[in-house]
Design a protein that fits this description.
Layout (H helix, E strand, L loop, with lengths): L1 H18 L6 E9 L7 E7 L5 H10 L1 E2 L12 E7 L5 E7 L5 E5 L6 E4 L2 H12 L16
Antiparallel strand pairs: 1-2, 1-4, 3-7, 4-5, 5-6, 6-7
Helix pairs in contact: 2-3
Length: about 150
């Protein structure tokens, strides 16, 4: 009887573990910082590895929680990032961080399209990382979602 009682909980834990996004095999991450709202003009491109910040962005993805399906952000991202994976299945995301402490990611094709909410600790680490850049700023105001 106890196994039957706990089966739904165990199944839920198993399913949530399978659906999480984990960036552990990343060799490096390419960050593309965008400047203008109307045109995607690249202002800086940077490659990070384990020695200079890869873990900040990997943790932001690993700890983020998927939002309800169909949530699409229309605000221009602060940056785009591509994790270069050992198994050649690179993963790409857009990233938004606001001055008020909100953070979001959107996974891009060819992988599952999903919008993820970053946890507070990851948002703060990314904000601190961005603050060290001269030409890059976090989103001023609120993130806008497609209606």
């Amino acid at each position: 009887m106890r196994i039957i009682k706990w089966s739904p909980i165990l199944m839920l834990l198993f399913c949530s573990a399978c659906s999480s996004v984990v960036i552990e095999e990343a060799e490096n991450v390419r960050l593309d910082y965008w400047e203008k709202e109307d045109a995607e003009e690249l202002i800086e491109q940077e490659y990070l590895d384990e020695s200079n910040g890869l873990d900040i962005f990997a943790e932001a993805v690993n700890s983020a929680e998927e939002m309800e399906e169909g949530k699409i952000i229309t605000t221009r991202p602060v940056l785009s990032m591509e994790f270069v994976m050992e198994n050649d299945e690179n993963r790409s995301y857009h990233l938004w961080v606001t001055e008020d402490g909100e953070g979001y990611l959107q996974s891009l094709h060819p992988h599952k399209n999903a919008t993820l909410r970053m946890d507070e600790e990851s948002v703060q680490e990314v904000k601190d990382f961005i603050a060290a850049k001269e030409d890059v700023k976090v989103v001023q105001g609120e993130i806008e979602f497609e209606q």
